[in-house]
């Protein structure tokens, strides 16, 4: 896991390189001649020029030269190790950062910086056990919250959810950064694990802890519903699924099938119909409309279902809705002319809403053609979609 961007290290090296030139000039003597000072200064400005022109590979090469010219500067060597890691030379980065961590005379901040860099090297090379040891030592000494964040990443990769939760809580206490949503996800992972092994009590307890970490956790609600379904607690499952839908309607298509099955199990078609009507008001997708259409067809007949669906599709056009309307028309053996008018209206709305052109570089959708993409500014990348043709 990399928490420090490549550009951060580029810009870290700029003042370091400038300072190195000043230091070399101050030292004088045989080791650091005026020629070497001039060489460092020239290399520094060439690297800066490459950065400004976004020639990153050439910039890296020159900054490596700068770091090599001043091996005694701690910050320069740390940055050099990060550049090695960025170039894929992880073994070289490990050796450099190990050497720095063992260098005598480092202050506490420098020691922490070197060890963090070494732990990141281990993570990059897949040596998670060694990385864990380094970061755990830093955490034990209460030296670096960033070490906690790295540990969270390690335990997440290893799917050790208990340790991930423990360190997420410690990180929240150390930094004040809210970690509840992440902790809730980890608790849900545990709940899934307990549920798969048949330990319903432990699964329920994990769901409760997930709610405590994030009261609006959609995943916890969906898990609670499934756990209650499997336990035969249908009414409790209905409450859980409905809470998910009201908390985040975007997940309605995920919970509708099991929720409607629960309503069927308890014989509450009135409650199901009322809930679907409520969701049709708050969710702009077609899922609750189609579900309610099927209920209307069962209870009131095909004609009523077709009329209801046709009205709804005028407000929320949908290809799936069109297919359902055609099926109902065929089942009713009704006059196809009225349905054709409805379908024409729905199709016109779909055409208006859908883009006719799309940028092949960034995916930006447009109704009209642009030679330069309004989003990514690429020239000649906006092209007609395959389903849009004028002949």
Descriptive report:
The chain is mostly helical and 391 residues long. The protein has a domain of 37 residues. Helices cover 73% and strands 2% of the residues. A hairpin with a 5-residue loop joins strand 1 and strand 2. Helix 1 runs parallel beside helix 3, helix 5 packs antiparallel against helix 6 and helix 16 packs antiparallel against helix 17. Its main location: membrane.
Task: Sum this structure up briefly.
The chain is mostly helical and 391 residues long. It is built from 19 helices and three strands.
Integer-rounded radius of gyration: 31 Å
Proportion of residues in β-strands: under 5%
- Compute the number of helices: 19
Topology order in helix (H) and strand (E) letters = HHHHHHHHHHHHHHHHHHHEEE
Q: Strands across the major sheet, in which order?
A: 2-1-3
Helix content bin:
over 70%
Q: Report the mean per-residue pLDDT as an integer.
A: 76
Low-confidence stretches: 1-9, 16-37, 387-391
Q: Structural class of the secondary elements?
A: mainly alpha
From the spread of the alpha carbons, the general shape counts as: flat
Amino- and carboxy-terminal Cα gap: 52 Å
Major beta sheet summary: 3 strands, antiparallel
- Strands, count: 3
Topology readout:
Blueprint: H1 6-27, H2 34-52, H3 56-69, H4 74-86, H5 90-101, H6 108-124, H7 128-140, H8 145-157, H9 161-175, H10 180-197, H11 200-213, H12 218-230, H13 234-247, H14 252-266, H15 269-282, H16 287-300, H17 302-315, H18 319-332, H19 336-353, E1 357-359, E2 365-366, E3 382-384
Pfam family, one: Zn_ribbon_LapB
GO molecular function, one term: iron ion binding
Domain LapB rubredoxin metal binding: 357-384
